[in-house]
Structure formats: structure tokens, C-alpha cells
Automatic annotation (TrEMBL):
<keyword id="KW-0460">Magnesium</keyword>
<keyword id="KW-0067">ATP-binding</keyword>
<keyword id="KW-0547">Nucleotide-binding</keyword>
<feature type="active site" description="4-aspartylphosphate intermediate">
    <location>
        <position position="411"/>
    </location>
</feature>
<feature type="transmembrane region" description="Helical">
    <location>
        <begin position="105"/>
        <end position="122"/>
    </location>
</feature>
<feature type="transmembrane region" description="Helical">
    <location>
        <begin position="1072"/>
        <end position="1093"/>
    </location>
</feature>
<feature type="binding site">
    <location>
        <position position="411"/>
    </location>
    <ligand>
        <name>Mg(2+)</name>
    </ligand>
</feature>
<keyword id="KW-0479">Metal-binding</keyword>
<dbReference type="GO" id="GO:0005886">
    <property type="term" value="C:plasma membrane"/>
</dbReference>
<dbReference type="Pfam" id="PF13246">
    <property type="entry name" value="Cation_ATPase"/>
</dbReference>
<dbReference type="InterPro" id="IPR023298">
    <property type="entry name" value="ATPase_P-typ_TM_dom_sf"/>
</dbReference>
<feature type="transmembrane region" description="Helical">
    <location>
        <begin position="128"/>
        <end position="146"/>
    </location>
</feature>
<feature type="transmembrane region" description="Helical">
    <location>
        <begin position="960"/>
        <end position="979"/>
    </location>
</feature>
<dbReference type="GO" id="GO:0000287">
    <property type="term" value="F:magnesium ion binding"/>
</dbReference>
<dbReference type="InterPro" id="IPR023214">
    <property type="entry name" value="HAD_sf"/>
</dbReference>
<feature type="binding site">
    <location>
        <position position="574"/>
    </location>
    <ligand>
        <name>ATP</name>
    </ligand>
</feature>
<dbReference type="InterPro" id="IPR036412">
    <property type="entry name" value="HAD-like_sf"/>
</dbReference>
Length: 1180
């Protein structure tokens, strides 16, 4: 950093970004800015920065021009620049009530009951008091408002957390702490290591001696494509400097490995690229929600039909019977019209029968979902103690849909795997070294003691001490093996203190190999553009780096040419075994066969393998080759082809050293989880940005791919021939006997596509892009659904979302997407259900998800236990709810035929008001929250129990009709049995018992008892809460009824409680209790008989498992001794590294090197979440 006080002359240049396919989950971007005299002159000058930021809004192109002056708030405040405050909350204390009520009345049911309330205020048509509607309506509105207010409170809290973060801002020539919300456009901000970027900044300088910045970010597809677009111009001392996205630090990043940097605020707050791209998360609704809306419309139509029938009946009755009484009634002339009377009666019955449309249904459903969400949050078996991470239900609207999933779309790295590579085994000169297991999966060999090596990695583990002995015996080939691992790579070392080494590797594979060499005594210590320094068994050795023959997807190998201290020129190469074997000297034939057998063994265990070879080069030959290389490097056309030919030339006749085997450690329980979910008839598709070979390796490790499959179709062709390849697979499948399944292509259910043969489909991103075209996407989907396993590799985040959307559009199936990185966000948002893994890649996926936890294996419990229970509970709740309401309401319909269609009610008004909110609300909520058909152990042991949810078996239109029919029949029995019994009944003293109020008390009591017994029959899992709510509701009914007909209330409110002594007089008669008992038995016995016969003659799987559970209630779950899963396969992996082309040239150019002996770390940006619930990401 220069120290003069002269005016700053800033200029920007940037290094080419080497990113393969723009899909890596972690990639390094090298960003360059000049070091100037900026520091000492901060605050002493102004510069005008004109930015033309072109933003697309749909089809309209708007060009904005921003002209901030640096470090001049007074000037910049003249313009309407946005402040840096963000706001994701919906309400404030003044707007909450009007906005929330407006939103709630957009729901049809609430608006419907508001209209009913208005109708009840019209005396001519209302036979019910207004409070019968307003009490439940206000209760529903209040509960929903409390829930919305609570959600918004947490949004306010999250906003406040972000807005009050501290930044160092240059004010009046010195750095002062400011809250983020107070940062303004034009401010100069100093960022330090591990700090969040407060706003969109123009990078001015950094702590790196060469002004270099490492940007470590995750490339992701945002909801739109503007994050990677920025056009501007910097005006400074009459000079213009172009600005683009490579010179911007976007809000939401975190500075990593950087002591400090300075930036100029260009966009703040809601105008930042991030906030402009956050958008609104699509509101997700479950299939049951959609069905309920349809059913409510059907119920409303049914209500209209009943109203019309009763209105017509009233008109006919008035003409034939009622006119005889007109002379005795002091009615107005208008009311003496029979047609008008029928019209008014229609509205009266709409009011009376309004309870058939359940106002409390929606709020009851929300209460159930909230309870189910808490069960997920409280589940200790989904808590990951190593990271102190519990499971979290981030939404309360999708719980029952967890029990209906048919397709799971999963990321690989960090989701199925730990993204931690472990050097597991190796083969050197025909000898294998590494883990040896017994029949129970326990390691036979102890962990190697590396204490002889002071520079060892303390976390490294290896279980074969014979390899260390070979090193100590100085076996030449073993030494060359680890020397190759220490030299042939693009890793950057970082030594913060003596002996404390940190390797920055572009892929965890390379880091694992270099770490292995380090522990075996070949420590990679330092590098420059021309040299590599190793510590070989404690002795420093410097190699001259002559050339790096970089990796690409065609070569599938990487080589380096070095000169050792003895002056010998050596070529070291590592790559896919098939590629390396083709370039070996013929004298290696026997060793090649031996090593090939070892590779088969390694690959059979799902390990990622590489072959290693070396070659001595002649000095003169190498000089001649270098001339050709320099010449080819300057060619503009077909440069890659010329370089590839030269690489091929020098990489011939190599000598085989051996092979490595790296384990990309699966997360605990992944194979078992996938196997269990597959048994539940859930299709799992893996969508990953990794190479085809890597993805297939993991597929075999997870047992998604197996050698006994009929065929594994691999589509990795170029775009031009992708169509023919897909069509070829379709023809081949048909020729293999699948032609008879052609009708399955037109089916909407995945279950109708089941085939006996097992196929797997593996397709790369290039081919997938072509296959997703309109004329091929349906064929691709049909083929994929006929395969047992589908793996899409080298796919972009956008393609992930497109695959999910393809299934959503063409299949009536619930989809679930699970991932851990920002590149999974679009997939997570597109699927019906999004699950985020809180792993190694930040919290972007978690913030965009509906559910989150720390390990993939928890998905099994989320779906098969919580999801299945939620679906079972919700379906039972809905069936009972509709049954109960029809049984309660339609009694008025039958009574209408016996009261002259006069819109008189059977029950008193207080019973109508309290029935749904007091007498029957708690028992059904208890059942909906706590019920279990089978316990969690049996839910996991029998995955087939999950299938009814996938076919909507427990609640559908047919089930709805059955429930409503049962309710209609129950209502008729509730009315006609007491009616028939009271026709000729008398009291004990011989007086008439059949007054209208005694009749109402009898029907009301029968109804409450019948629905209570029915919910007892529907309950499979009894808790103390169920008992308390059911018996408590019955007790509450009798207590309230006797209280409302008591002398005390009558004396206080004679107009509201006029029926004094009705309950006491009616229920003191034995005949009334006999009628109630008869009504209850007749209503309940048909259902009891039906369920007994169904369970005995045609039991479901749930019935069988429940009986088994009851038989073994006192016996705990059987313990299973699970052995280590070891796969046998004849298949070997190809080049396993998630390697990217271009790093070799970058290293030899020296542009990513720091000054010698510099203790300053390399700056980088790491994508993180913000605290406001938005996914904060950047594409640079």
C-alpha cells in the first residue's frame, strides 16, 4: 500500500474467472483491485461514480442513472436514494387491524358469514339472534389475527436484527460505527474479516499486497437473472473507468480470510441486488386445502338447494294451509303474499342452515397444523447434537402433505454426503493398504500413530501401519507415490503460524489427497508460480514447477512437470484409471492387471478412485516440447485442441505407481433411509452439479444403483444427439417387453407405472437441457417414471427447478425437494415441499425451506412418522367434522316439514351458538392432534403404511360423500326417533311430554352423546387429554344447559333465558333417557357393525399392523444388528474429482500468489443468509 498523500488514482482490472458450467457448489473467484494511495487520503476527496444499472421488469426495460458522491452525505441526500433499512414485515401497530381484516375477508367462508350476519339483522327473515353468528365469526377472526400477528412479530424481530448490525463508516474523516439502517448511498465502508457486506459495494481496496481478493461464493439461479448484471462508469479526475459485476461486493456476502477491505455504497436497502431479487415466496397450498375449497363450494350449493326446497314448501303450505290463518294474524299486506313468504323463508333457512358450511373448519385446521409443527420441532430423534440443531417446521401449512409425497428430489453433496473426503485405501506397486474389516464391519487394524510427523493433521486417520513402515524403510515406489500426491494438484497452502497448515483446495478430493501425503511425511508447505516446496520426512525440498497440464472433462487427468533438486525432470500424472492405463508403458502390463483388480475392489465399496503414474523426461526432448507448448498457447483458434494434442504427446509411456481410494463419506443412515423410502413407494431422484462418475459412485454407495439392475441407461451425449438417445432408450425399453405398458404413459399416477424389471436413468445437464424441450419433456418424464432410479448430473440450479416443475405439471403427485446449498433454493421453492439441510454451505437452503434439519436420515422420520400421522389425523378430523356438522344442521331441515316451513329452529339459540365452539370443538381437536393408528416404531418398520396418503385414500370426494351421507342419516334418526317416541308419550303423572322445548332438549342431548361416542370410535390412540376433553365436553354441556334453564339466570336475564326449568323437567323423566339411549344405539350400531366386518373380512394393512402392535404392546422394538453395507461391483469410477479446468494456468501465472512471508490471509466472500428470512446470494 503506497503511503503518499497525493490524489488517488484508482483503476480496476480483473482476472478471468475459471468456472466450469457455472454450477459448482463452491468455487473460487479471483478478483483484482489495485492498491492505491487511497488509505491515507480517505475522506479528503470526492469522486463522482455514475452507474447505469439496466434492470428488466418483465418486457419493460428501465434505465436508471445513479450519481453518488463518495463520502458526501449532504449532497447525496438531495436525491431520493433508498436508505439501507429493510422491511419484510407486513403490518405495523396502526395498519394491522384494517389490513388483516381485509385479508381474512378475502377468504370465501369468512365473507359468507359476514353476509349472514348482515342478513340476521333483518327482522323479516331472521329467526336467530345475531350473536349465533357473530360469536363464532369473531372467535375465528381473533385466532387467525393472533397467529398472523405472531408471525409478523418474528418478521419485525428478524428485520430489527439485520437493521441494527454494525458497520464502520467513514464520517468526517474518521471511521465510526453505524447501524446498517443508517448507512447511505455514497458512504465508504470498511469491512473486516467474517463481517457481512451491508450493501452493494464498489470494491476500492483490500488488505492484499497485490490488491487481490478471493471470492468464495455459491453460484445459484435467483428468481430472476439480474444478480450477475451490473453496468457502470467511474469518473475520477477526468478519467473514466468501466465498472461491471466483477467489481461489486453484493449485500449478503460474508468476508472470509481477509483482514480488511474498503467499499463505496452504490445501492442500499431494498434497492440492493439481493433485495430486488428476493421476491415473494410462492404461497404453497396442500391438496387437502384445494379439495376443501371445492367441498365448501359443494356444501354451499347443497345449502342453496335445501333453502329452495324449504322455500317452495313454504309457498305451497301458505297457499294450501297457511291462508286459513291469515285472518287471525296481524300481518302486513305484503307478508300475506305466499310467493314473497317463500322468498323470505329461503333467506331465513339460509341463516338457520348456515352451520352446514363450517366456519370453524379453517381455524380448526390451522390449530391442528400448528400442533403437528410443534411435534416436529420437539422431536428429540430429529435433533442433531453434534451441531446442536433441532428439526424445525418453518411453515404450518404443509404438514399433512408430508404424508403424501411420491417424488423426492435430492441434492448430493452435503445432502446425501457429508462433503468430507477421507483417504481410505490405496494400491502401491501391486500391494493394497488401508482399512480391513471383519464380518461385523469392525476395523481389524488399529489407527496408525503419526506422532513421528510434527506437521501431521491431527484429524487424519488411517488403519494400516504397514504403509508407514514402508515409508520409513524408504521404499522408492512408495516415496514416489506420496511425492506425486504432494506435487500434482492445484491446492494453495496457508500457514498462519509455524506448523499450522491450512489447505485451500478447489475440491475436497484434492484436499484429502494432499492431506494424506502430508501425514505420511510428504508435506506440501509452500508454492510460488515457479516452485513447490515440500517437507519430505522433515527435510525441505524445493521442486521447480515447469508446467501444469490442466484437467478438463475430455482429458480426465491432470499432470505436472517438475525438476527435482538433482536436476531430473519428472512428469507426475493422476486421473481416471481407464485413461491412465491407456498411456502406460507396455512393461506395466502385469502391474496394471493387479492394480485393476484392486480398483474393482475399491469401486465395489463405493470409493472414488484415481490411478497414479509418473515418467522421467529427457532434457532435450522436454525443451523441444516446451517450445511447441509456448507456440500453441499463443494460438487464438482451436487453442484447446492444440494444447490437448501436446499434452497427449508427453503423457505417453508412463510408469504406473498405483491407485488411491477416497471415501466421500455418506451421512449416517443414508442407504437405510433411501431403502426405507423406496419401500414406501417414494421415487428418489438425485439432482447434482457433480460429474457423472461422481454421481454414479454415490448412487452405488447409496444402493440406488445396483449391479443386478436390468439396465442403467446413461445419457451423456452432446445436445445434437440427445433426442435420438432418449428415443433409443424408449424403443429399447419397449423391445425389452415393455410395449405392453404403453398405456401407462397416459396415466397420472406413479403407481400405475410400476414394472417388474428395474432400470436406472443417468443423464447429464447438456442432454437434460435438450430433453426438457416441449416436444421431448413428456417422453423424458415417462421414461424416468419407469426407472427405479433417476440421477441428473452436471445440472444447473435452474435445471433442478425445471425437473421438479416438469413432474408437478404432468403428475398428480406431491413433490419434495431437499438440499443444503444456495444452488438448491430454486428447486426447494418450486417443489410442493422444500426441506433444507443445515450443513457445510451456509443457511441459504434452510431460509428458503418449509422444513429443516441437520441430517438426511431425518427425512425418513419426517415423512413416515410425522407426515403419515399428520395426514391420518387431518383426514380423520375432516371426516368427523363434516359428519358432525351435517348431523347437527340437517335436523332443522327435517323439522321444517313439520313446522309449516316456518323457519323455526329445533334447538334453542344458545345451543346453536355453543355447539361447534364449546360442546364438540375440543374432542375433535384432541383426536386431530394426538391420534395414531400405529406407533412410530411400526410406522418405520412397515413403510407400506405410507401408501394410502399417496393415493389420497383416507380423504377424497368419495370419503366426503360417505361422511356427509352418514351425517344425513344420523340427523334423520336424531329427529324421527324422538319425534315418533313423543307422539304418544306421557309423563309419569300422565301429562303430555311433547312440548317443543322438551323435544329440543332430547334431540340436543342425543346429538351431543352420539357425536361423543362416534369420536370415541374414531380415536385409535387414547391419551389423558382425549379422555378429559370428551368427558369434559359432556359435563360442560349438561352444566351449561342446566345453568341456562335455571331460576337464577332467568331472574337476571329473563329475555335471554326464558325456558326456565326445561332441562330439569325433561331429563327427570325415564322415558326421555330411554329415547336418548335408543337414538344413540340406533345411530352408532350400524357404524360399529360395518367397522367390525370390514376389519374382520377385509382388513387394511393399518388394521393388521395395529392388531400386531396390540398383541406385542409390552414388547419393545426388536433390535437389529446392522452390518456394514459393502457393495460388490465390477464397475470402477472414472476421474472422481469435482475438478475444474483453468487452475493450472492460474497458478503458473502467479496471479493468485501472495507476497513471500506475507502473513495476510486471502480475502474471500462466503454466501450466507441474512436475518430477514431472505436468501442472500450473489453471482459475481
Amino acid at each position: 500500500m503506497e503511503g503518499s498523500s497525493q490524489s488517488c488514482t484508482a483503476f480496476f482490472f480483473f482476472l478471468d474467472l475459471f468456472i466450469a458450467h457455472n454450477i459448482s457448489e463452491n468455487c473460487n473467484i479471483f478478483w483484482s483491485g489495485t492498491v492505491s494511495t487511497f488509505l491515507l487520503t480517505l475522506g479528503l476527496f470526492k469522486h463522482n461514480c455514475v452507474i447505469n444499472d439496466q434492470i428488466k421488469h418483465d418486457s419493460v426495460r428501465i434505465v436508471k442513472q445513479v450519481k453518488p458522491f463518495s463520502n458526501d452525505r449532504e449532497f447525496n441526500e438531495k436525491f431520493s436514494y433508498a436508505d439501507n433499512r429493510i422491511k419484510t414485515s407486513k403490518y405495523n401497530i396502526f395498519t394491522f387491524l384494517p389490513i388483516n381484516l381485509f385479508e381474512q375477508f378475502q377468504r370465501v367462508a369468512n365473507a359468507y358469514f359476514l353476509v349472514l350476519l348482515i342478513l340476521q339483522l333483518i327482522p323479516e327473515i331472521s329467526s336467530l339472534s345475531w350473536f349465533t353468528t357473530i360469536v363464532p365469526l369473531v372467535l375465528v377472526l381473533a385466532i387467525t389475527a393472533i397467529k398472523d400477528a405472531t408471525d409478523d412479530f418474528f418478521r419485525h424481530k428478524s428485520d430489527q436484527q439485520v437493521n441494527t448490525r454494525q458497520s464502520q463508516v467513514l464520517i468526517r474523516g474518521k471511521l465510526e460505527n453505524e447501524k446498517w439502517m443508517n448507512v447511505r448511498v455514497g458512504d465508504i465502508i470498511k469491512l473486516e474479516n467474517n463481517q457481512f457486506v451491508a450493501a452493494d459495494l464498489l470494491l476500492l481496496s483490500s488488505s492484499e499486497p497485490y490488491g487481490l481478493c478471493y471470492i468464495e461464493t455459491v453460484i445459484c439461479e435467483p428468481p430472476n437473472n439480474k444478480l450477475d448484471r451490473f453496468i457502470g462508469t467511474l469518473y475520477w479526475r477526468d478519467n473514466k473507468y468501466p465498472l461491471d459485476n466483477e467489481k461489486m461486493l453484493l449485500r449478503g456476502c460474508v468476508l472470509r480470510n481477509t483482514e480488511w477491505c474498503f467499499g463505496l455504497v452504490i445501492f442500499a436497502g431494498l434497492q440492493t441486488k439481493l433485495m430486488q431479487n428476493c421476491g415473494r415466496t410462492t404461497f404453497k397450498r396442500t391438496s387437502i386445502d384445494k379439495l376443501m375449497n371445492t367441498l365448501v363450494l359443494w356444501i354451499f350449493a347443497f345449502l342453496i338447494c335445501m333453502g329452495i326446497i324449504l322455500a317452495v314448501g313454504n309457498t305451497i303450505w301458505e297457499v294450501k294451509v297457511g291462508r286459513n290463518f291469515w285472518a287471525y294474524l296481524l300481518w302486513d299486506e305484503l307478508l300475506s303474499n305466499a310467493v314473497l313468504s317463500g322468498f323470505l323463508t329461503f333467506w331465513s333457512y339460509i341463516i338457520i342452515l348456515n352451520t352446514v358450511v363450517p366456519i370453524s373448519l379453517y381455524v380448526s385446521v390451522e390449530v391442528l397444523r400448528l400442533g403437528h409443527s410443534y411435534f416436529i420441532n420437539w422431536d428429540r430423534r430429529m435433533y442433531y447434537s453434534k451441531k446442536d440443531t433441532p428439526a424445525e417446521a418453518r411453515t404450518t401449512t404443509l404438514n399433512e402433505e408430508l404424508g403424501q409425497v411420491e417424488f423426492i428430489f435430492s441434492d448430493k453433496t452435503g445432502t446425501l454426503t457429508q462433503n468430507i473426503m477421507v483417504f481410505n485405501k490405496c494400491s502401491i506397486n501391486g500391494n493394497t493398504y488401508g482399512d480391513v474389516y471383519d464380518e461385523f464391519g469392525h476395523k481389524k487394524t488399529p489407527c496408525v500413530d503419526f506422532s513421528f510427523n510434527p506437521l501431521r493433521d491431527q484429524k487424519f486417520r488411517f488403519h494400516d501401519s504397514s504403509l508407514v513402515e514402508a515409508i520409513k524403510l524408504e521404499e522408492p515406489l512408495v516415496q514416489e507415490f506420496f511425492r506425486l500426491l504432494a506435487l500434482c494438484h492445484t491446492v494453495m497452502p496457508e500457514e498462519r503460524s509455524e506448523g499450522e497448515l491450512l489447505y485451500q483446495a478447489q475440491s475436497p478430493d484434492e484436499g484429502a489427497l494432499v492431506t494424506a501425503a502430508r501425514n505420511f511425511g510428504y508435506v506440501f508447505r509452500a508454492r510460488t508460480p515457479e516452485t513447490i516446496t515440500l517437507y519430505e520426512m522433515g527435510q525441505p525440498v524445493t521442486y521447480q514447477l515447469l508446467a501444469i497440464l490442466d484437467f478438463n472433462n475430455v482429458r480426465k487427468r491432470m499432470s505436472v512437470v517438475v525438476r527435482n533438486p538433482k536436476g531430473q525432470i519428472k512428469l507426475y500424472s493422476k486421473g481416471a484409471d481407464t485413461i491412465i492405463f491407456d498411456r502406460l508403458d507396455p512393461s506395466n502390463e502385469e502391474l496394471m492387471y493387479t492394480t485393476s483388480e484392486h480398483l474393482n475392489e475399491f469401486a465395489g465399496e463405493g470409493l472414488r478412485t484415481l490411478a497414479l503414474a509418473c515418467k522421467d523426461l529427457d532434457e532435450d526432448m522436454f525443451k523441444e516440447w516446451m517450445k511447441k507448448l509456448l507456440s500453441a498457447s499463443s494460438i487464438l483458434e482451436n487453442r484447446e485442441e492444440h494444447l490437448g494434442a501436446l499434452y497427449e504427446e508427453i503423457e505417453q509411456g508412463m510408469m504406473l505407481l498405483g491407485a488411491t481410494a477416497i471415501e466421500d463419506k455418506l451421512q449416517e443412515g443414508v442407504p437405510e433411509t433411501i431403502a426405507c423410502l423406496t419401500l414406501a413407494n417414494i421415487k428418489i431422484w438425485v439432482l447434482t452439479g457433480d460429474k457423472l462418475e461422481t454421481a454414479m459412485n454415490i448412487g452405488y454407495s447409496c444402493n440406488m444403483l445396483r449391479d443386478d439392475m436390468n439396465k442403467v441407461f446413461i445419457i451423456s451425449a452432446l445436445l445434437i444427439i440427445s433426442k435420438s438417445h432418449i428415443l433409443g432408450i424408449s424403443s429399447e425399453k419397449c423391445s425389452n417387453g415393455e410395449s405392453g405398458k404403453a398405456q401407462l404413459y397416459n396415466s397420472d399416477s406413479v403407481f400405475e407405472e410400476t414394472i417388474i424389471a428395474e432400470y436406472a436413468l443417468v443423464i447429464n445437464g447438456h442432454s437434460l437441457a435438450h430433453a426438457l424441450e416441449a416436444d421431448l419433456e413428456k417422453l423424458l418424464l415417462d421414461i424416468a417414471c419407469l426407472c427405479k432410479t433417476v440421477i441428473c448430473c452436471r445440472v444447473t440450479p435452474l435445471q433442478k427447478a425445471q425437473v421438479v416443475d416438469l413432474v408437478k405439471r404432468h403428475k398428480r403427485a406431491v413433490t419434495l425437494a431437499i438440499g443444503d446449498g444456495a444452488n438448491d433454493v430454486s428447486m426447494i421453492k418450486t417443489a410442493h415441499i422444500g426441506v433444507g439441510i443445515s450443513g457445510q454451505e451456509g443457511m441459504q437452503a434452510v431460509l428458503a425451506s418449509d422444513y429443516s434439519f441437520a441430517q438426511f436420515r431425518f427425512l425418513q422420520r419426517l415423512l413416515l412418522v410425522h407426515g403419515r400421522w399428520s395426514y391420518h389425523r387431518m383426514c380423520n378430523f375432516l371426516c368427523y367434522f363434516f359428519y358432525k356438522n351435517f348431523a347437527f344442521t340437517l335436523v332443522h331441515f327435517w323439522f321444517g316439514f313439520f313446522c309449516g316451513f316456518s323457519a323455526q329452529t329445533v334447538y334453542d339459540q344458545w345451543f346453536i351458538t355453543l355447539f361447534n365452539i364449546v360442546y364438540t370443538s375440543l374432542p375433535v381437536l384432541a383426536m386431530g392432534i394426538f391420534d395414531q393408528d400405529v406407533n412410530e416404531q411400526y410406522s418405520l418398520r412397515y413403510p407400506n403404511l405410507y401408501k394410502p396418503g399417496q393415493t389420497n385414500l383416507l380423504f377424497n370426494k368419495r370419503k366426503f360423500f360417505i361422511c356427509t351421507l352418514q351425517g344425513i342419516c344420523t340427523s334423520s334418526l336424531l329427529f324421527f326417533i324422538p319425534y315418533g317416541a313423543f307422539l304418544s308419550s306421557v309423563r309419569d303423572d300422565g301429562s303430555n311430554i311433547s312440548d317443543q322445548q322438551a323435544f329440543a332438549v332430547t334431540i340436543a342431548t342425543s346429538l351431543v352423546i352420539v357425536v361423543s361416542v362416534q369420536i370415541g370410535l374414531d380415536t385409535n390412540y387414547w391419551t389423558a387429554v382425549n379422555h378429559f376433553f370428551i368427558w369434559g365436553s359432556l359435563a360442560m354441556y349438561f352444566a351449561i344447559m342446566f345453568a341456562m334453564t335455571s331460576d337464577g339466570l332467568f331472574s337476571i336475564f329473563p329475555n335471554q333465558f326464558p325456558f326456565i326449568g326445561t332441562a330439569r323437567n325433561s331429563l327427570s323423566q325415564k322415558s326421555v333417557w330411554l329415547v336418548i339411549l335408543l337414538t344413540t344405539v340406533v345411530c352408532i350400531m350400524p357404524m360399529v357393525v360395518y367397522r367390525f366386518l370390514r376389519t374382520d373380512l377385509r382388513p387394511t394393512l393399518s388394521d393388521k399392523v395395529r392388531l400386531m402392535q396390540q398383541a406385542t404392546r409390552r414388547q419393545g422394538p426388536q433390535e437389529q444388528n446392522l452390518k456394514r453395507v459393502r457393495r460388490t461391483s465390477s464397475r470402477r469410477s472414472a476421474y472422481a474429482f469435482a475438478h475444474q479446468q483453468g487452475y493450472g494456468e492460474l497458478i503458473t501465472s502467479g496471479k493468485n500468489m501472495r507476497v513471500a512471508n506475507s502473513a495476510q490471509s486471502v480475502p474471500s466472500l462466503d454466501m450466507k443468509e441474512n436475518g430477514s428470512g431472505c436468501t442472500e446470494s450473489a453471482t459475481l
